[in-house]
Amino acid sequence: MKLKLSTIRNLIIILIFGVLSGGIGYRLGYQGVTAGIKEFRPDFKIENRVPQNPPAADFTLFWEVWNRVSTQYVDKTKIDPQKMVWGAISGMVAGIGDPYTVFLPPKENKESKESLNGSFEGIGAQLGVKEKRIVVVAPISGAPAELAGLKAGDWITKVDGQETFNWSLPETVSKIRGPKGTKVTLTIIRGDSNKPLEFEIVRDTITIKSVEWKTVDATGSASSTGNVIYLRLSRFGDDTNKDWDNAVDEIKKIEKGKGLVLDLRNNPGGYLQSAVYIASEFLKAGQLVVKQDNNNGTSEEYKVTRVGKLLDIPVVILINEGSASASEILAGAIHDYKRAKLVGEKSFGKGSVQEAQDLPNGAGLHVTISKWLLPLGDWINGKGLTPDVKIELDEAQPDKDLQLIEGIKLLNI
Question: Locate the PDZ domain: which residues (predicted)?
């Protein structure tokens, strides 16, 4: 199926640090929803309407709680009707039990878009939800989070001393994000250890360059005479396809490039359209990249529709537990056709697609609309991709990239 940019641009495979959006299937109102609601009528105007065919839901309890909080809470200055509505919507969406279907007020929705544009202020870490806990999916290379010592797989248990238990992803991000120069303290649990670690991180402006490349020698070190291309893809954002094309055009000019290592480590995902576009660089026309099973019972197949420029070069792909979503589609599709071996650690395991929808007043909705399957039919949600060669980085040798070195060896050039 050929991708339509007007539609696919809003299909985001999200593992993005928390800047998820959400929404409401119908608007809160009291008239006509159910009997008995008028006795708990709020003391301000609700400027929205009930849908034509409202679900069988009794809002009596909702308005009773609203009325009691509004009239009985001790500090009336903290009662903000708009925030209460947003909170009610967030709770309604959270009731589905899907951490990736969420509601965000205007501020958080704006931050979501900024992150995919590649520039925002914060600590520079992609967050996700795993086992109902907040986890660091991937620290962004060179950002304050990575420089402070955060790693993929770290569980965030506290933010500025506040327990994160039962926090939503948007709530967590809202508390971690902040203006450049301000500080935030994160308490994390790493691996199987029960010992908490604390990091004080100074926020900064985060600019993400989605594509970088260089030639390297057998040790993985940058070398103008190296015959291996190291190509790093950090996200699938607004400018990724353009940056990718520019990089590939430059790479094709290098006659000594005999093999390519594609680094998808700590790549948390992004636009589905971009993952399919880049996979098409390595696969033959007509080959299936990903199958999407939709919420209405239909399926869509996204296939290669262009002639790739890297069809003949040997490829190895690096992955780790920070490789998620769109990066798993890319790595999994290329691997299914035996175009590349996977080296590193098991990937995150996210196999669902969210549609980003803008709502009135700047709010937004990210709702899970489908799940995706790899060309051979695998759904890796909760499982991840298993590398052909498993190698963990040696913390005692931080300057030695053992995964990259192994990838270069597998190229046999």
Answer: 101-177
- Residue 89 tokens, joined: 């919507």
Matching residue, tokens 């008995």: 36
Of 158, 146, 111, nearest to 366 by C-alpha is 111
pLDDT in tens, 19-77: 332 222 222 222 222 223 333 344 444 455 555 666 667 889 999 999 999 999 999 99
Decide if 20 contacts 112 (C-beta within 8 A).
yes
Any idea which residues carry the catalytic annotation? Answer: 325, 336, 350
pTM higher than 0.85: no
Q: 3-state SS of the chain?
A: CCCCHHHHCCEEECCCCCCCCCCCCCCCCCCCCCCCCHHHCCCCCCCCCCCCCCCCCCCHHHHHHHHHHHHHCCCHHHCCHHHHHHHHHHHHHHCCCCCCCEEECHHHHHHHHHHHHCEEEECCEEEEEECCEEEEEEECCCCHHHHHCCCCCCEEEEECCEECCCCCHHHHHHHHCCCCCCEEEEEEECCCCCCCEEEEEECEEEECCCEEEEEECCCCCECCCCCEEEEEECCECCCHHHHHHHHHHHHHCCCCCCEEEEECCCCCCEEHHHHHHHHCCCCCCCCEEEEEEECCCCEEEEECCCCCCCCCCCEEEEECCCCCCHHHHHHHHHHHCCCEEEEECCCCCCCEEEEEEECHHHCEEEEEEEEEECCCCCCCCCCCCCCCEECCCCCCCCCCCHHHHHHHHHCCC
Q: Look-up: residue for tokens 């509004």? A: 70
What is the topology classification, in CATH, of domain 119-207? Answer: Pdz3 Domain (2.30.42)
Residue with tokens 């080296």: 343
Which residues make up the CATH 2.30.42.10 domain(s) of the chain? 119-207
For residue range 106-164, list pLDDT tens digits in order. Answer: 988 887 787 666 678 999 998 988 878 899 988 988 899 999 999 988 999 999 999 99
**From its phi and psi, is residue 373 left (phi > 0), alpha (psi between -120 and 50) or beta?**
beta
**Where does 211-355+367-410 sit in CATH, by number?**
3.90.226.10
pLDDT score of 70 = 95
Q: Where along the chain do the CATH 3.90.226.10 domains lie?
A: 211-355+367-410
CB 368 within 8 A of CB 337: no
Give mean pLDDT, residues 93-117.
Answer: 86
